[in-house]
Amino acid sequence: MKLYHGTNIDFDKIDISKSKPNKDFGCGFYLSADFEQAKNMANIKILILIKR
Question: Which has the closest alpha carbon to 30: 47, 50, 51, 44?
Answer without folding.
Answer: 44
